[in-house]
Amino acid sequence: EKRFVFPETISPAYDVLCNSKTTLMHRALLQNPFRSTRFAWVDGGLHWPMTVSIPYTDPATDMTGNCSNYLCSFDDRFVDILTCGEKSDSVCIGFNHNAACLRNEWQKKFGSRSAQGKRANTFNCWNCQDGATFSGTGPAMLRLAVAYQGMLREYRQQRVVDADQGPMMQLWLRDEGIVEDCGCKGFRACTGYMLGAWKRGEADWLLFNRSRAACEANG
User: Fold this and answer.
1) Shortest CA distance to 194 belongs to which of 185, 21, 63?
2) Share of the chain above pLDDT 70, in %
3) Which one, of 162, 76, 74, lies nearest residue 115 by Cα?
4) 193 and 53 in contact (C-beta within 8 Å)?
5) Degrees, nearest 5: CA angle 70-72-74
6) Rounded to a whole number, what is the distance in angstroms from the first to the last CA of the chain?
7) Using one digit for the tens of pLDDT, what is the confidence trace for 15-63?
8) pLDDT tens, 134-159?
C-alpha cells in the first residue's frame, strides 16, 4: 500500500536516511571529541515552527525574555540539553498530540508486536511522534541505538516500512524505559524545549496539559 502524501511508503532513500539517526548518534558517542555527557539530535532540515524557542546564541542580540503565542525569546541563551528517566537513562522524545491522553487508545491500535499494528502506525498515525529532535545522556543514547536496531529488524522481518517516527513510537508503546515522552507540544515546542527551554520559567506553554481532567475534557 502506498499513499503519495507519505514519503515513508514511496521513497526508500528517505526511510534509510531517517532511520540512520540513531546510528549517527552512536557514532557521535564513540568519537565524542568534546567529551560531552549529554546529546541531542536535531534535524538538519529544521524550519519554522520547529525553530521557535530554540536558545539564541548571538551575544549582540538583546533578548527581553517574553513569550507571545508561538513566538518566543529568552533571557537565558545557553543550551542546556534535557535528560529523561529516573536515572537519566531514557531518551527524551516528543509527540504532536497529547500522548499521555492517547496512550491507551494508541496501544490498542498500534501497540501489538504484529505487522498489522506497525503498518497501522505508518498509515494512521503519520507524524504522531515528533522525530525532529530527541535528547539524553550518552548511556541513554547507547541504549536507544541498540534497541532501535532491534526494532528495525522487526520491521524488515514483517515487511513493514516507515521512517524513524514509527519505530520510535513503537519503542515508547512498549514502555521499556528506552524512550520517554517529555510532554512537549510537538513541532512548535519540542526542539527548543529539549535544548534548554525546559529549565526556564516560561516553559509551561511548551508543554501539553497531561492531567486526567485535561484528558477527559479533550475526549
Assistant:
1) 185
2) 83
3) 162
4) yes
5) 160
6) 31
7) 999 999 999 999 999 999 999 999 999 998 877 777 666 765 444 444 4
8) 999 999 999 999 999 999 999 999 99
3-state SS, the chain, equals: CCCCCCHHHCCHHHHHHHCCHHHHHHHHHHHCCCCCCEEEEECCCCCCCCCCCCCCCCCCCCCCCCEECCEECCCCCCCCCCCECCCCCEEEEEECCCHHHHHHHHHHHHCCCCHHHHHHHHHHCCCCEEEEEEEEEHHHHHHHHHHHHHHHHHHHHCCCCCCCHHHHHHHHHHCCCCEEEEEEEHHHHHHHHHHCHHHCCCHHHHECCCCHHHHHHCC
Q: Could you give phi then psi for residue 132, rounded to 5 degrees? A: -65, -35
